[in-house]
Design a protein that fits this description.
With 543 residues, the chain is α/β, with parallel strands linked by helices. The chain folds into 2 domains: 9-241, TIM Barrel; 298-542, Alpha-Beta Complex (Spore Coat Polysaccharide Biosynthesis Protein SpsA, Chain A). The chain has helices at residues 9-18, 31-39, 49-56, 66-79, 95-107, 137-150, 170-184, 199-208, 226-231, 242-261, 274-281, 283-293, 333-343, 378-384, 404-412, 481-494, 505-514, 534-540, and strands at 23-28, 44-47, 84-87, 112-116, 157-162, 188-191, 214-216, 236-239, 300-306, 327-328, 331-332, 348-353, 365-369, 392-397, 400-402, 417-422, 437-442, 453-463, 471-479, 519-524, 528-530. The strands form 4 sheets. The chain has an 8-stranded parallel beta barrel, surrounded by 9 helices. Strands 16-19-17-18-20 form a 5-stranded mixed beta barrel. A two-stranded antiparallel ribbon has the order 10-11. Strand 1, helix 2 and strand 2 (44-47) form a beta-alpha-beta unit. The longest helix has 20 residues, at 242-261. The radius of gyration is 37 Å and the shape is elongated. The structure holds sulfopyruvate (SPV) and magnesium ion (MG). Residues 48-50, 60, 87, 124-125, 217, 219, 240-241 line the site of sulfopyruvate (SPV).
């Protein structure tokens, strides 16, 4: 039965070298360049030793270790759909090192390797080529045989490259070596030349008479029309270093210009957009996979109402900053609240600023300004951030300090409206005259004031007659996605009210109850405070 699996990279590379058609193999030196080469349509990639070394900032003299080359080649194989033919230099040692190298290359998905008949550590063929000694033919043949015997996949390709012409040993020696390497099992022969004319390579090809596939690297004799190779049935031409060399002037010019102009503005449009970088990295695939494999993270937001300066008792401290930027133990109220919310996975944070709005600059915090903060109440501020009322959303006062678990309890509750309240209304101790506060009536006030408890809201008001109320609102209202929608609609309708500019959050709470919405209340005992005086600030440190 025919298999549906696409051919393996080894099989594809072997087939490419086995036909009489001339194919072109492009150099690459990392995952990105390999992908670019494959996208351009090259059916195979030459993992060039010269380019890989240059990319790593070292010389083409085996300064990069074989395991470092292996790592890099693996990135290339992963990134490019085209098979990789790795430049294996001299095989990184004797027959034993080479056969181990072959097995490792196979395990990393490399389709083939080319080794050259020089001596470790080699030097690039275009540097002092005539001075480079060649390996004894027998020794090199033993290495080829060991490699062929070691490969697990029959289609893995081993190319033998003779440097006889580079070293100036002449055509006869090149032919003798090519013949011996062919007999030793090499799947193709590279005959390399440093001449700018193709004559010695063509003489080789004519004498060789297409006995076995030949691959050329016409870096120096690049002006030769490829039809001349085609006519001689050359299996493949390797463009040996051209992506690296294309990148160099582009990087050099960009670096010099940016350094000189102390700005990227002049060059930005000439650069690849970031979107292109992300595309080449395959971000689309990850995005699609996230949708498949990641549980959808709930979209949670918070709107922090922080438009006020604070009462006269705080004015010495709020001359320059709004109340929400007062510090407790060195951290502003706003930062502490935002940090806690971020830790609880609330990602879309918004603040409504008013007094000294420009002082609120926290990164990642979306700021809405209520220019009329001095004449308007909390609801007018909330309305300024109406577009942030999306999905589940917490509405919080910006001048409170509370322990994280209070926020956690609210965020974990999926009811449409959830508030935090304290059974012990502040300022009710004997003999204290207290200002009006956000007070709540509960459907079933708990018997104890020291246990956290759940109940529902029966009514709410900004009032001073504590006796009529059961608890104080902590300034936190968590809304589900539906709850947020209800609040948005309520806000839209409230704008028409003559008292709109004076409306407070408790008016919203009271209206929700009046409309028959259940507002769930979690009762706490302490673990929070709001800042109304310099003393409150000092006391807040105890939290
Ligand atoms: C390489 O690309 O590293 C090669 C080809 O070996 S050459 O640089 O022409 O020797
Ligand atoms: Mg090389």
């Amino acid at each position: 039965m025919a298999s549906d699996n696409p051919p393996r990279p080894t099989t594809r590379l072997r087939a490419l070298l086995g036909t009489e058609r001339l194919d072109f193999i492009m150099e690459a030196h990392d995952g990105l360049s390999a992908r670019i080469a494959a996208e351009a349509g090259f059916p195979a990639i030459w993992a060039s030793g010269l380019s890989i070394a240059a990319g790593l900032g070292v010389r083409d003299n085996n300064e990069a270790s074989w395991t470092q080359v292996l790592e890099l080649a693996e990135f290339m194989a992963d990134a490019a759909p085209a098979p990789i033919l790795l430049d294996g230099d001299t095989g990184h040692g004797n027959f034993n090192n080479f056969r181990r190298f072959v097995r490792k290359l196979e395990s990393r998905g490399i389709a083939g390797v080319c080794i050259e008949d020089k001596i470790f550590p080699k030097t690039n063929s275009f540097l002092r080529g005539m001075a480079q000694p060649l390996a004894p033919v027998d020794e090199f043949c033993g290495k080829l045989k060991a490699g062929k015997d070691a490969q697990g996949d029959d289609d893995f390709v081993i190319v033998a490259r003779t440097e006889a012409l580079i070293a100036g040993w002449g055509l006869a020696e090149a032919l003798r070596r090519a013949e011996a390497y062919h007999a030793a099992g090499a799947d193709a022969i590279i005959v390399h030349s440093a001449k700018s004319r193709p004559d010695e390579v063509l003489a080789f090809l004519d004498a060789w008479a297409n006995r076995h596939p030949v691959v050329l690297i016409p870096t120096k004799y690049y002006t030769t029309p490829v039809e001349i190779f085609e006519a001689r049935k050359v299996a493949a031409v390797i463009w040996g270093n051209h992506l690296l060399r294309a990148a160099l002037p582009a990087m050099q010019q960009a670096a010099v210009r940016i350094a000189r102009e102390r700005s990227v503005a002049g060059i930005e449009e000439k650069l690849a957009p970031l979107a292109e970088v992300f595309r080449l990295q395959g971000d689309d695939e990850l995005h699609a996979a996230e949708a498949r494999y990641l549980a959808a993270a709930p979209q949670r937001g918070a709107i922090i109402l922080a438009a006020t300066r604070g009462g006269g008792a705080l004015h010495p401290l709020t001359a320059e900053v709004p109340k929400t930027l007062l510090r407790v133990d060195g951290v502003t109220l706003l930062d502490r609240l935002c940090d806690n919310l971020t830790a609880l996975n609330v990602r879309q944070l918004s603040v409504v600023a008013g007094y000294r709005a420009a002082a609120i600059t926290r990164a990642g915090l979306r700021r809405f300004d209520n220019a009329d903060w001095a004449e308007t109440g909390e609801i007018a501020s909330l309305a300024c951030a109406a577009e942030a009322l999306q999905g589940a959303c917490l509405i919080a006062y910006g001048d409170i300090l509370c322990r994280r678990h209070i926020l956690q309890v609210l965020l974990d509750d999926e009811a449409d409206f959830v508030i935090a309240a304290d059974r012990r209304i502040r300022g009710t101790a004997a003999g204290t005259a207290a200002p009006p506060r956000d007070l709540l009536r509960l459907t079933a006030p708990p018997a104890h004031d020291f246990l956290d408890a759940e109940t529902s809201l029966a009514g709410a008001a900004y009032a001073a007659d504590f006796a009529d109320y059961d608890a104080e609102w902590i300034g936190l209202l968590q809304c589900s996605a539906r709850g947020t929608q209800v609040v948005r609609e309520w806000l839209a309708a409230a704008r028409a009210r003559p008292d709109f500019s004076r409306l407070a959050m408790v008016d919203l709470l009271a209206d929700l109850v009046a409309r028959g919405e259940r507002v769930k209340a979690h009762l706490f005992s302490g673990d929070w405070t709001t800042i109304e005086s310099v003393c409150d600030l000092a006391d807040a440190s105890n939290l």
